Sequence to fold (219 residues):
Amino acid sequence: MLWIAFLGSSLRLIPVFFVACQPETHPGLPYYNTPDFTPVFMKSENQLAEKVPHTIGRFSFKDQNGTIISQKAIEGKIHVADFFFTSCGMICPRMTKHLKLVEKAFPNAKDLVLLSYSVTPWIDSVARLKKYSQTNGIQSKNWHLLTGRKSEIYQLARQSYFAEEELGYSKDSTEFLHTEHFILVDRQKRIRGIYNGTLELEIQQLIADIKTLQQERLR
Fold:
């Protein structure tokens, strides 16, 4: 309550009451089922498959060590995906630097995988990805820099991860893919967050959201 003075024929103190507005709250992180990233909140998992049918599709690519990485690598795990290329001199170095903050925040997490897909796989060979990982000090065994068929990477990026949101969903592999987004995916391969990988503030939110997903397993 606040008292204010009213100046009229006489000085009076009038009480003013403020009612705090309570923000609407939702249980946990939202789900994203469409490329326009309209959030879907679920109070229970009973209707999850019906209301959020979209999941990350199957894939199989080679990482910087020449190891085949498929959807088996993310089964039952949380993962973060981003799309980069080693010769990028603009946003990619900053994105890699910021993803290292995630790597540092979860040094021993066996339930977290980082997947960095090359959008110039015809240039980014296994050897080139290996050199890039060494140059950038990537140490985690769960951070995979991936290369493979361009058409497969682009289709996965646009139609599974919604990497370029709605604008990129219907594009084909002839149109170059470049996005600053990090995509957070839960243990059921459902999208739970999208972040601007060039902004450190959003990376801190990503880290917090990963911790939220880790707690979901404990409920």
